[in-house]
Design brief:
This protein is mainly alpha-helical. The protein has helices spanning 4-33, 37-63, 83-110, 114-144, 148-158. The radius of gyration is 17 Å and the shape is elongated. The two termini are 23 Å apart. The mean pLDDT is 97. Bound molecules: hydroxy diiron-OXO moiety. Residues 17, 20, 50, 53, 94, 97, 126, 130 line the site of hydroxy diiron-OXO moiety.
């Protein structure tokens, strides 16, 4: 069974993953209003992924015989200045999440909960992908500068992203 410390820390992270989903939904709505439908799609898929991350962790808490603790989900920002501001915020948010995930893995180690440590490794790897994916987009935005034609080309690229559940239902 999970320790109380780990149960509380994992529950906080479930909340944080759902906050991430909320944040990306707010960003998706903002991008939609800017006329950037592909960017809105990318962020919507990102929100779906965050929901999957949170739900997977919630299921793990139950699987380990503990009861998740629930708290209010923080309100995300209501508006964003432009697409660059959105992706800069995505990167800084993911960097914060990376710190949280590392702290959880460290706590699992301190509690000598090897199973939980192992469980956290998926999230550790995922954060590397999250940061690298958004850094790539920010690099492209730097090259694009004020060129709206190139921005629309990037938007088209982002329209292709589809949600793939990283945790298909167990047989
Ligand atoms: Fe759940 O990875 Fe982003 O926040």
């Amino acid at each position: 069974m999970l320790s109380e410390k780990l149960t509380n820390a994992l529950s906080d992270q479930v909340n944080a993953e759902y906050y991430s989903a909320y944040l990306y939904l707010a960003m998706s709505a903002a991008a939609d209003k800017m006329g950037l439908k592909g960017t809105a799609n990318w962020l919507f898929v990102q929100a779906q992924e965050e929901t999957a991350h949170g739900t997977h962790m919630y299921e793990y808490i139950l699987e380990r015989g503990a009861v998740p603790a629930f708290a209010a989900i923080e309100q995300p920002p209501a508006s964003f200045d432009n697409v660059n501001a959105i992706f800069e915020k995505v990167l800084s948010h993911e960097q914060t999440v990376t710190h949280r995930i590392n702290a959880l893995a460290t706590l699992a180690m301190q509690e000598s909960d090897h199973a939980c440590y192992q469980f956290m490794m998926w999230y550790v790897d995922e954060q590397v992908e999250e940061e690298s994916g958004v850094t790539e987009i920010l690099d492209k935005l730097k090259l694009i500068g004020e060129n709206n034609g190139m921005l629309l080309a990037l938007d088209n690229e982002l329209a292709a992203r589809v949600f793939v559940n990283p945790f298909p239902a167990k047989a």
